[in-house]
Specification:
By secondary structure, the protein is an alpha/beta fold. It is about 45% helix and about 20% strand. The chain has 2 domains: about 150 residues, NAD(P)-binding Rossmann-like Domain (Rossmann fold, 3-Layer(aba) Sandwich); about 160 residues, Alpha-Beta Complex (L-2-Hydroxyisocaproate Dehydrogenase, Chain A, domain 2), CATH 3.90.110. It has a 6-stranded parallel sheet, with helices on both faces. The chain is globular, with a radius of gyration of 19 Å. The structure holds 1,4-dihydronicotinamide adenine dinucleotide and oxaloacetate ion. Oxaloacetate ion (OAA) binds next to helix 9. Keywords: NAD, Oxidoreductase, Tricarboxylic acid cycle.
Length: about 325
């Protein structure tokens, strides 16, 4: 393992997710390698961010090699190996993700360009800020010199939510649930697919053996969990989103176990009929910082319709940001 610190940029670092994410990263969520944090915020939030940095200092984290803050992406992204793009306008009560497209498009255009100009050659970019898939598409398109495979949008929170629901339903530890898949968009159209998942080594759909539960409870509970949390908390999920952001980055950099896979929204190569170029969630394995889409899964008519509906929404979002001139 390299002892040179991994340079990790976090945008929106003074926000809700940032307040959980920074402390997880600094305490070793990505592994034993020390990290240097590069924190990007808008000018008015820098004072609050200074307070968060005081708290990071006060934790005396052994693995935190340095912290730099600022509002200029060209300075903050300089030489970064990992960029976690969290900063965006979050959804409030009654808002759909479409409302966020134009509000957030400009942010991801500028950040894509800055990453293209100054990030390290090995940079990996994870987008958490919503609408995450399309924000990642905007950043990727505005960073033509960075390989497209280096961009990913977060569907790991949905993946974790799906695992948790299956664990609760079957009384099984979460560690026994493997090969969960989220397909499509990080939105209410996403398709949490348990037909290839395993519970203690057995096919999850066969263990559950209750299609009505899958259709009427499992899928909507996972897909609408974000809205349920906003409704209950009056603010969108933050600690769980930070946790999933760490899980996704750790697995991307360090690899997935041989008997499992994870869900990541990555650029489609046309696999499973998902239109080429969309950033859509797939089952993936990772190794040495690279991902590959798990191939050869059988997709029945029920799953096909669900995947198609979510990817159609992604194609509409792509069309909308094309018309806005963002890509
Ligand atoms: N993909 C996922 O699973 C999830 C995504 N989210 C999304 O994550 C995003 C952040 O959520 P919160 O932390 O709760 O929001 P927040 O509003 O608490 O924090 C966002 C921060 O981003 C900053 N920001 C805005 N424009 C920026 C820019 N151009 N550069 C740098 N920073 C900028 C704001 O000043 C603010 O501090 C939202 O878009 C939210 O919808 C939230 C939960 C789950
Ligand atoms: O739903 C939202 O706006 C926040 C989010 O992405 C989630 O919790 O999955």
């Amino acid at each position: 393992m390299s002892s040179t610190p991994l340079k990790v940029a976090v945008t929106g670092a003074a926000g809700q997710i940032g307040y959980s994410l920074l402390f997880r990263l600094a305490s070793g969520a990505l592994g034993d390698r020390p990290i240097e944090l590069r924190l990007l915020e808008i000018e008015p939030a820098l004072k609050a961010l200074e307070g968060v940095v005081m708290e990071l200092d006060d934790c005396a984290f052994p693995g935190l090699a340095g912290v730099k803050i600022g509002s200029d992406p060209n300075e903050i992204f300089d030489g970064v190996n990992l960029a976690l793009l969290v900063g965006a306008r979050p959804r409030g009560p009654g808002m759909e993700r479409g409302d966020l497209l134009s509000a957030n498009g400009a942010i991801f255009t500028a950040q894509g360009k800055a990453l293209n100009a100054v990030a390290a050659d090995d940079v990996r970019i994870g987008v958490t800020g919503n609408p995450a898939n399309t924000n990642a598409l905007i950043a990727m398109t505005n960073a033509p010199d960075i390989p497209r495979e280096r961009f990913s949008a977060l569907t790991r929170l949905d993946h974790n939510r799906a695992i948790s629901q299956l664990a609760a339903k079957t009384g099984t530890p979460v560690t026994e649930i493997k090969k969960m898949t989220i397909w499509g968009n990080h939105s209410a159209t996403q398709y949490p697919d348990l037909f290839h998942a395993e519970i203690a080594g057995k096919n999850a759909a066969e263990v559950i053996n209750d299609q009505a539960w899958v259709e009427d409870y499992f899928i909507p509970t996972v897909a609408k969990r974000g809205a349920a949390i906003i409704d209950a908390r009056g603010a969108s999920s933050a600690a769980s989103a930070a946790s999933a952001t760490c899980n996704a980055a750790r697995d991307w950099l360090n690899g997935t176990p041989a008997d499992d896979w994870v869900s990541m929204a990555v650029v489609s190569d046309g696999s499973y009929g998902v239109p080429e170029g969309l950033i859509s969630s797939f089952p993936v394995t990772t190794s040495n910082g690279d991902w590959s889409i798990v191939q050869g899964l059988e997709i029945d008519d029920f799953s096909r319709a669900k995947i198609d509906a979510s990817t159609a929404e992604l194609a509409e979002e792509r069309q909308a940001v094309t018309e806005l001139g963002l890509i």
